[in-house]
Fold:
Amino acid sequence: MSELDLGFMGEVANTPRGKGVLLCIQCGRCSSSCPVARLTSEHNPRRLMEMVIMGFKSEVLPHQLPWYCLSCFTCLDRCPQGGDVGEVMFALRNLAVRQGNIPAGVAGQAKALYETGRVINPVRTALDKRESLGLGKITADGLEEVQKILKKTGMEKIIQSK
Amino acid sequence: MVKNMKYAFFLGCLIPARELSYEVSVRKVLPELGIELVDMKGANCCAPFSIQSVDYASWLALAARDLCLAEEMGLDIMTLCNDCYESLLMVNTILKRNPELKEQVNQLLSEVGKEYKGKVDVKNLVDVLYGDVGVSKVKSAIKEPINGLKVGTQPGCHLTKPKRIHFELLRGFNDLDALVQATGAESIPYERKEMCCGGPLRDINDDLARQVSRQKLMALKDAEVQAVVTVCPFCFLQLDLGQLEIKRHFSEEFNLPVIHFIELLRMGMGMKLEDWEIKAHRIPITELLKNRL
Amino acid sequence: MGEEEPRIGVFICHCGVNIGGVVNVPEVVKYAKTLPNVAYSEDNIYTCSEAGLASIKEAVKKHSLNRVIVASCTPRTHEPLFRSACREAGLNHYLFEMANIREQCSWVHAHQHERATKKAKDIVRMAVARASWLTPLEEPELEIKDTSLVIGGGIAGMTAALTLANQGFKVYLVEKEPELGGNVRRLHMLYPTMQDTKELLEPAIKAVTTNKYIETLPSTMVADAKGYVGNFKVTLDKKGEKREIEVGTIIVACGAMNYTPPKGLYQYGVYPNIVTQLEMDELLRNGKIEKAPERVVMIQCVGARKGEIRALDLAGFPKSDTARLLAKILKAKKEEGWPYCSKICCMNAIKNAILVKDRFPETDVTILYGDVRVYKEYEDFYSMAREKQVKFVKHIEEVTPEITQGPEGKLTVMAYDALSGREMRLPCDWVVLSTPMIPHKEEVILARMLKIPISSDGFLMEAHVKLRPVDTQMDGIFLAGVASGPKDVPESIISAKAAAARAAILMANKKMRTEALTSVVDEEQCIGCGLCEEICSYGAHYLEEGKSHTIAALCRGCGACAAECPRRAITMQHFTDEQVLAQIKAGLTEEA
Amino acid sequence: MNGKAVLVVGGGISGIQASLDLASRGYKVYLVEKSPSIGGRMAQLDKTFPTMDCSMCILAPKMIDCSHHHNVQLLTYSEVKGVKGSPGNFVVTVLRKPKFVDETKCTGCGICADHCPIEVPNEFDEKLGMRKAIYMPFPQAVPRAMTVDKENCIECGLCQKMCQAGAVDLKQQPQETELNVGAIIVSIGFDLFDPAQIPTYGYGRYKNVLTALELERLLCASGPTGGHLIRPSDGKIPRKIAFIQCVGSRDRRFGTTYCSSICCKYSVKDAVLIREHEPNTTVSIFYIDLRAFGKGFQEFVNRAKSEYGVRFIRSSPGEIMEDPATKNLTIWYEDTVAGRIENAAFDLVVLCPALVPRTDAKELAKVLGAGVDDYGFFQASNILTNPVDTTVPGIFACGYCLGPKTGDIPDSIMQGSATAARVAEVLERE
Structure:
């Protein structure tokens, strides 16, 4: 039995995308609508909200739980309380990242973003193909500004720490 | 009234890197319908969901920077990818409604000499075709109707959800179907149309991502459609490439061709696909469209 | 039998398909016509409809009927209607008889059409036999005194008193405590407006005490009550000083009390910082919680929604010793808890949670619930609490939360979170128990005195739980506030106003007629044994000069005295031996 | 009779109670009702908890009392169009819509309806049954007179020809009447939230998804199926039935954030009735919080569980899907206590929609100058101390038009009596 964190719900609720957790009445419309929850018992957005409310911080943040969400926003449409479960997931992932819990795929995209200004970059053959089709060049015109912004927001640090 | 048919064209990351055929078709078809596309020089990644998961402020600032570029161009944005669309649209909506947040974001942007003013709108390919061009004009542009083809459409989550954002803009769930019908093809209703393709779980839990796609494909198969029509390049990738992966992992074969909507429209307008474009589909479309290719 | 030959009209109702779908109604009509003294018979789709009633009136005139029988549903709901139709046709309404062929026939034999039809004929035959013996009766007219007694000076009692006084009726307002205000006095603030209770009470008390029509009698109990609707004689007792008043109506607003758990239940009374919501309210009001607690845990439904009271225990209402019986049940319930939902505890807990949060924003307030029953707009109050970061946790109620005390007096609640399936350890500084509102002893004594039955939950019973929620089975006595079950302030006020409205009807009319269905003592036969006085639950018999007499206004026509009388000196009007025996005989006779 | 008059708007149970209390107290009462008959929602119900009395059977005597009472004047098929004046002296304009039938002549025999060639869905039966263009909404209607529904009437004149009482008058004109009253009571009741607004539940698309009020009509012996519980798609007896709570209630998306207060309770009642009707039919109730407050309800829930085997599942389902071939329904839900996401097939699904203000509540409020609350219900002048006063002196409200003030029948009756008390307080003071 893990120790409950008294302030976890407040911590989540105080983030820009996490306020919805306070609206949750645990009705289960999100979980029964969630395409992932229907496939695996590991993911259950309703239970995740309950764990946040109760303060099971150590069971939520270091694990894969918030990363199962597809962000398909079905729950946002169906939540009768406007609890924005899918949005709260972003709040949880933001907090998880700050604890160092970031899946490799996401970390890779973030890194690419910082280094190139884009999360996906073309391979050599694609570049050649573009040229042969007369499509415009992919430039890095905005990169410098992107890096400045990411430094300012502190995301650069997160990227470098990985 | 003549609508402003000129857009700042936001390509995003995935399309220019991996789905050139989509880009080519858009560049061929839209001018024919009177849409002028102006490339956005210096645009950065929209900050999709993966980036939003890392940091909130970075998302707002990066998307706002793209919006600033469009403001400088004096044009509304048109996106192809649903991820780009939702990201830019949400930030645009949030910042327009929240002056305090706008102030904070502008503080970040001042670092790079930009200021978000909230003067442009964000649209998607479907919005532009449905709202600006109009179904009737699309229909009249069809020279070789795709008669007899039964398709299931995949508008993709972020074209329609959350409803409170999209419905306010009067952008509906059935816009894509109306456009598909205009090409002569038949849009068959199927269960779980609103369901996600599974793509966002790629690289996080590939197995689950495939299982979600599989559910979607099974529903499409049950409705006896001949092909899936997508708008979002991620949906396309997940459902097209995904079928090969499902075959590998579940030994289950759907053989359901996946087509970008713009390709359907292009063929209907009498512009044939080129060989490399046909081959860009991992599930072959040659059998299905043999008379048109 | 009356002087003229009986001419009976029999009206048989289809009740849509309720009866007509099972019983062959036309056949019963045909059969009825063959019975002795039946002059006319017909069927109606709905005899209770305006058309049906018009048809009865027409037939009475056209066929010179002097008895009317309607074979349809239950007299409980429909007899008054048909009786008034008879009256309008110029017939004494005691010459009307009802045969129930729905509840007692078509509904219970829905799949046996033929046998149901035969039974319907039997029932009609019995009614016809009885009807031949019916005699016209006159209903006594009673004077109604236009003064009222309101028992209980809480918010409901004060509201009822003011409502009557505002209409110009003299009201005696009796309160056992030295001050008015009742349960609300003990509260700090009222949900959902978070209004100070003083703002509610002070104007009300002032309005009551300055009203020239209201005589407020604090520190006073009702010692005895006699009489009947319109003419109650009540003895009041103010610390031994007795006084008798006469009133026309009585409104019982005697309130209820908060359940205090027995020592040891949820460690109540064992550890100091375990209190009820009411006690927490007082602590907050008096600023007794000085240091910000780290966490406050509230537990809902302590002693509520638990245990079973069998309705049988209270059925009947025997005169013998209701108070003792009830005391026994009350005691039993204290151990087991009360079976009902007390309705207001969820909002009360939320109110206190908000008060704690407002005072100590950093304090964690966790409410363990089974169901959050924040009905009506209180849902918004619940949302408000959640937005203030009060935590609501559905715990597995079957597992009683375990409360232990640590070294520095710190409490720990162990419970199961039903919705995450995890065991929770909740260290806390306070445990607050939400306990139900329960009936109190005075209520039981009053019930006995006023002869009002008690429902299975221990509260005073309404005349009809659905249709007559503030009336009692005793004419002229009404219920207001929580005496009939848990209510919050606005609900109590509404019920008090409703009770006042019902009482005002009687007093404004200044007189009323009562049932003629009463017992009559044949003084020649009576030996003055007093058995009837003893058996009567309503106090309708008294002995004078060695003979029993009936107070018609109190007699409910139950017939217990007639059955008990060793000399057969008591006759129940409208249920005479001749009438009943004729009916039974007809029942035992085979269909002709 | 003390010569003072009161207007009661809305002839449901609370309006009826207010009217009877006032009339018995000696006031002249004008009872205005929009539809052809008084009776309101209670008339539509099958049985009432906990006595399981047939709702109509206990209501009908009160309705008839109203029509017989020498102090009550019924103005059915009528609407309030204007109000002037002040407490003690209101002048009210009432529009009497033409019934095209002379109420004083009509005996309600129904021969006209037998011959009317036009059939339309009956609103009283929640459109599950049919009525004619000349009709009586239900057999126990008060006043017992026919009404011509001019929107659907083809003016063939058959009704006029068949009526032996000469009551049909197709040329009847609307009439405006002015009433002088001392006080006004509003008791116009509620409407149901349209469940089609929650598309994932398929109401309106799936034939076997019903509202609870539609179910009441199906269970009622005088309903469109004669009390046979059959499902609309194929007339078969449903063997698995589900109730879904909070359809539109407790929902911020539609502004209906309140709890409708009655759905949990009537669902348990309906479940028990169904089990008594069809012992081989199972019933599951999907709920969020089971709000069985009020006298006797918790005990009733316990009995429903133990004696009747009704299943209670703590869950608000995400969606319902229909099998196009069998029209059976699959509910996707999470048993939140077990933490399992499941789907289960049902033959019939009953949605319990939120109770919302009447569509014309705002208009009436405007005519009266009375305030409405955030939801559109009539606003009480002080929810604690004056719960049945509107914001206008001399105008009172009772029943569900005040919002879900616990809302069930006894509460509506208490409020009806309470408004009668308030009226007397105001009128006697002068």
